[in-house]
């Protein structure tokens, strides 16, 4: 990988922060955008702006074609069988809310159970909790061990005749653990239970093949895969999506509307009410093609090496506690040093130009489990370098020295 060339595609990485060149290590929160993505958005508004699916005129058809070609780009990126299995949403959060609303309405009755895990993002907790109130479903939670790994034996015990879905993150946004989703899917399918994979922290780091995985649903956000904000994906197997009712009502999701009764459109439009965010959909396809051109296998081996280096260097710091010590990790390292508050660490690193995340990372139940309020989180992307990791380590050591 030609890192200098790659970095030159991301002008923001040359930003000066308090006199230092930015070290951006908050990629788990959002990734930076390559020029081609930003330029694509500008190009669409300057050359191709028109509402999609609605016009017979030239611009509308051109915009529609580009948006539908982008659906195929997403289909190929995750190797879905059909492009109609790709639903565009606002992001992971909306994708899971769509799932919770629509799946529960169709398949759950009072007392039915959904299994999630102790390491889920709030999006994959609260969306289902809302259905506890609306539908009377119950949430069951797979516990984690001291390394921050899912306890699959415990998961097996949670499965019952009332289990309707297992909804699980692929990679923890706090611990960095890569969960054994292949095994989870196999266990679930042996009980005829579908599985939803939250790929918000994985789809930008490794090859995901939904057909090979055989997952029933998969969700991710555009802004975490070097694409724009405000766009995301819900992939679902056609057999499930066809049975599920629409999430929102409005234009495009209908077949025919009458006051006597309304029929709904086919997939994927049944789930895409209203004018879609087509400029960002098209720019998302640019981002995915950008990743593909570098190559996910090269990205993975480069990032894994950087993660290992960062992890090794952090481990040498006296008094450091790393949360999540599984052998199978990806991109993310969460830590605390001595009694230094995560917020103080984050603020002081920022003054040195180093951007990290601090806090509970939208995973308060996990924080409770770990017995802490928050962590400092470093999350790596393919444009990061060993030199940047060295700056992080030097920065942390300076903060430690300040606190004596
Ligand atoms: N799930 C996971 C694992 C995440 O890391 C995030 C974002 N931090 C989300 C869901 C929510 O994503 P978004 O805010 O883009 O909808």
Description:
With 404 residues, the protein is an alpha/beta fold. The protein is 41% helix and 16% strand. It contains 14 helices and 17 strands. The strands form 5 sheets. The protein has a 7-stranded mixed β-sheet with strand order 4-10-9-8-7-5-6, with helices on both faces. The protein has a 4-stranded antiparallel β-sheet with strand order 13-14-17-16, covered by helices on one side. It has a two-stranded antiparallel sheet with strand order 1-2. Strand 13 and strand 14 form a beta hairpin. The chain binds 4'-deoxy-4'-aminopyridoxal-5'-phosphate (PMP). The site of 4'-deoxy-4'-aminopyridoxal-5'-phosphate has 13 residues, from helix 4 and helix 5.
Topology:
Blueprint: H1 3-8, E1 16-17, E2 20-21, E3 23-24, H2 35-47, H3 58-78, E4 86-89, H4 92-107, E5 113-117, H5 123-135, E6 138-142, H6 152-158, E7 163-169, H7 181-190, E8 195-198, H8 210-213, E9 217-221, E10 232-236, H9 238-241, E11 254-256, E12 263-264, H10 278-294, H11 296-315, E13 320-323, E14 332-337, H12 342-351, E15 354-355, E16 357-359, H13 364-370, E17 375-379, H14 386-402
Parallel strand pairs: 3-15, 5-6, 5-7, 7-8, 8-9
Antiparallel strand pairs: 1-2, 4-10, 9-10, 11-12, 13-14, 14-17, 16-17
Helix pairs in contact: 2-10, 3-10, 4-5, 11-14
Bound molecules: 4'-deoxy-4'-aminopyridoxal-5'-phosphate.
4'-deoxy-4'-aminopyridoxal-5'-phosphate (PMP) binds next to helix 4 and helix 5.
């Amino acid at each position: 990988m030609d890192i200098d060339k790659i970095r030159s595609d991301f002008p923001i990485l040359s930003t000066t922060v308090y006199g230092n060149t930015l070290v951006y290590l908050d990629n788990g929160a959002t990734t930076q955008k390559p020029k081609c993505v930003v330029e694509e958005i500008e190009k669409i508004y300057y050359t191709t702006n028109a509402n999609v699916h609605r016009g017979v005129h030239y611009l509308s058809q051109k915009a529609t074609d580009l948006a539908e070609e982008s659906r195929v780009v997403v289909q190929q990126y995750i190797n879905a069988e059909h492009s109609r299995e790709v639903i565009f949403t606002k992001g992971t959060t909306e994708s899971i809310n769509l799932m919770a609303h629509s799946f529960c309405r169709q398949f759950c009755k009072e007392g039915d159970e959904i299994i999630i895990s102790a390491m889920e993002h709030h999006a994959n907790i609260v969306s289902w909790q809302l259905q506890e109130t609306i539908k009377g479903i119950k949430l069951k939670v797979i516990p984690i061990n001291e390394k921050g790994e899912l306890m699959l034996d415990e998961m097996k015990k949670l499965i019952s005749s009332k289990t309707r879905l297992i909804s699980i993150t692929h990679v923890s946004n706090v611990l960095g653990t890569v969960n054994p989703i292949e095994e989870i899917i196999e266990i679930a399918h042996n009980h005829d239970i579908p599985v939803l994979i939250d790929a918000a922290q994985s789809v930008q780091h490794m090859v995901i093949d939904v057909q090979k995985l055989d997952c029933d649903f998969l969700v991710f956000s555009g802004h975490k895969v070097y694409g724009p904000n405000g766009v995301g994906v819900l992939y679902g197997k056609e057999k499930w999506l066809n049975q599920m009712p629409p999430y929102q009502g409005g234009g495009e999701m209908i077949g025919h509307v009458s006051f006597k009764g309304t029929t709904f459109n086919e997939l994927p439009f049944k789930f895409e009410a209203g004018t879609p965010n087509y400029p960002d959909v098209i720019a998302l396809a640019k981002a995915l093609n950008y990743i593909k051109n570098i190559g996910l296998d090269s990205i993975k081996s480069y990032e894994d090496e950087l993660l290992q280096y960062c992890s090794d260097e952090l481990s040498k710091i006296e008094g450091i506690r790393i949360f999540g010590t599984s052998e199978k990790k990806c991109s993310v390292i969460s830590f605390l040093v001595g009694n230094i508050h995560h917020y103080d660490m984050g603020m002081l690193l920022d003054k040195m130009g180093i951007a990290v995340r601090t806090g509970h990372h939208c995973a308060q139940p996990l924080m409770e489990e770990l017995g802490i309020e928050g962590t400092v989180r470093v999350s790596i992307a393919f444009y990061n370098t060993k030199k940047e990791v060295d700056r992080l380590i030097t920065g942390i050591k300076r903060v430690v020295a300040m606190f004596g």
